[in-house]
Known about the structure:
Number of strands of chain A: 10
Order of helices and strands of chain B: HHEHEEHEHEHEEEHEHEHHHHH
Distance between the termini of chain A: 29 Å
Number of domains of chain B: 2
CATH class of chain A: Alpha Beta
Low-confidence stretches of chain A: none
Radius of gyration of chain B: 33 Å
Structural class of chain A: alpha/beta
Strand content of chain B: 15-25%
Order of helices and strands of chain A: EEEHEEHEHHHEHEHEE
CATH architecture of chain A: 3-Layer(aba) Sandwich
Helix content of chain B: 55-70%
Largest sheet of chain B: 6 strands, mixed, barrel
Radius of gyration of chain A: 18 Å
Strand content of chain A: 25-35%
CATH superfamily of chain A: P-loop containing nucleotide triphosphate hydrolases
Strand order of the largest sheet of chain B: 2-3-8-5-7-6
Oligomer: heterodimer
Helix content of chain A: 25-40%
Number of strands of chain B: 10
Number of domains of chain A: 1
Shape of chain A: globular
Number of helices of chain B: 13
Mean pLDDT of chain A: 91
Structural class of chain B: alpha+beta
Mean pLDDT of chain B: 87
Amino acid sequence: MIEIKNITKTYKTGDFEFQALKGVSFDINDGEFVAIMGPSGSGKSTLMHILGCLDTPTSGNYQLDTKDVSVLSDDELADIRREKIGFVFQSFNLLPRASVVRNTILPLVYAGITKEERLEKAKIALASAGLDEIYFEHLSNQLSGGQIQRVAIARALVNNPSLILADEPTGNLDTKTGNIVLGTFQKLNEDFGRTIILITHEKEVAEHADRIIFIRDGLIVEDTKTHQKKSVRHLL
Amino acid sequence: MKTIDILQETYSALLSNKVRTGLTMLGIVIGISSVIAMVSIGKGAQSTIETNIQSIGSNLIQVIPGVQGGAGSQVSQGRGTAKTLTYDDALNIKEKISSIKAVAPELSGRYQITGKGTNTNTSVVGVTADYSDVRNISIAEGSFISEQHFRGMSKVAVLGPTTRDDLFGEGVYVIGQNIRINNIQFKIIGVTTSKGGSGFLNQDDRVFIPLTSAQKFLAGDPYLSNISVQVLDNSLMAESQIQITNLLLELHNISDKAQPDFSILNQNDIVATASSITQTFTILLGAVAGISLLVGGIGIMNMMLTTVTERTREIGLRKAIGAKRKDINLQFLIEAVVITLLGGIIGVLLGSIASFFINLSGLIQTKISLNSILLAFSVSAVIGVAFGYYPARRASNLNPIDALRYE
């Protein structure tokens, strides 16, 4: 469902040019759980932005669900993001003054879905992200880090996207809550067949996925199945 | 994104920083309310002056004598002092011009008047019976000068309420009492109702006597100081003015139209002049208040720019999960417009209350016009759009990646 071919990305600041991606190609199939791993400065964030349709490549081709998204305008990309991609960020990015439910339905608000349907979908998404119903009307600043990240996962799920992109989702969490979040991803992948791309710089974290793409200096160095996948579903 | 969702976002965004929202709104409230109050003062002054002018009588043309002296004479006595108008002129105007409703010739002068042990110096106006209709004079007690008084040169007088108060004391019943004008005894037959006005516009400090009596006993000659001509309809004023001019030129045997021995004042011209003065006054007041509205608008822009900066990450998130440029733009624009509109509503209320109390204090009359309220509303909406546009555009143009990284 994801096919990228020979993607490059060049940043220009004045006369200075910096090539963050130097020709990256891979396919990701439906229902895969892939970790993109690399040290900082390797180009993995740039790759994440392109995969998430937040940015377009300088050259190369990106097909998402057989649609070429490398040539779309800003507003067309916004449509793709709304319909096909769910984001989970390192810094959570919830609206601080809004309730858990309000935060979860935010993508549906932009999709123009009716109130009743929104609430229905939000409840399902929150349940699959593993957040207890008693927290639904809490404001997001009344929750713990692990709970906040579950709300963020629910928000990523609520639109029923083809792809969930998680950018260092455990970066701001302690190991135990981080593992619970990773377990949630494993459950979503294994039980609900969600396609998940996890971006991380930690090998530890990457090993929770089925496949690891290792990237360095804008090129893929290694693309293999995980030797020993760590399952943390028992923590849920 | 649906309208109701935008409004809900706006509601929670504005409530999240109540103090800042309130202070920003205060700028607009002060601006709008001062516009409303100032314009109402201007409009009040305008209508006061117009009512004063109209209270002299409606659809009036005043004919006054011209300059005494003329060719050969070195010393001019000023307009209105010449002895050129006669009662016959007045009769001719009434009979020969069809658009005339009534004519009220008068002869006025200032004389010393004595009452019971008191005296005053005021204007004595010799009038005909038609005068009360033409000049909107109504009678509080007794009766006005009649046709018989006019024909019989009766020594009767009608007092204005101020003159009555000066001579006999406030509210005293004076019908049947005598006064002496220039040492000639007149019997009081009536008192007029108060018309208000003050200074040179005071129409209550007057004594009316029959025109014939004034000519015979006081002035000693058959001339008039003024002819008030009432025209049937306002639309006929200009035409009547020309007809009266031509008629009087003919009656006075004057061939040179540039040198008449009388002059004519059209009430419409007086009203128009007075209105244009108060109009300028109103615009001036409104403009001063408008400056505070502009300052309020800049306050809105300042607040919106701060908000956009503060909420950069939120904007990035919204874009990442699929908000289009248009959605972000609309959200911030509506925030600005809601602040200004709410400020506008409160401002209209406060301004109206202020104008009500200014009126109540008796200092100046005020008049709130629907126009100024509508104007205030549309101005506040325009300010919201104008000063919200740039911050909203800035928000909608943010790159989601940069916005998400913003610390």
